[in-house]
Amino acid sequence: MNLKRIRKSKGISRYKLAKLSGLNESTLQNIENSNDPNPTFKVMCKLADALGITLDDLRR
Known about the structure:
Blueprint: H1 3-9, H2 14-21, H3 25-32, H4 41-51, H5 55-59
């Protein structure tokens, strides 16, 4: 997953993405650092919505 790359390209901090998505910063950190390589569909949807992208974009 390219969460970190997409987040940085949009100039969004992990803190701001956590607020936009309703997720914990630690959850985002785990996903970005591949400690949680398979987040749930619900989490993926929240991230895609918060970033204004599609699920396909997030998974590339």
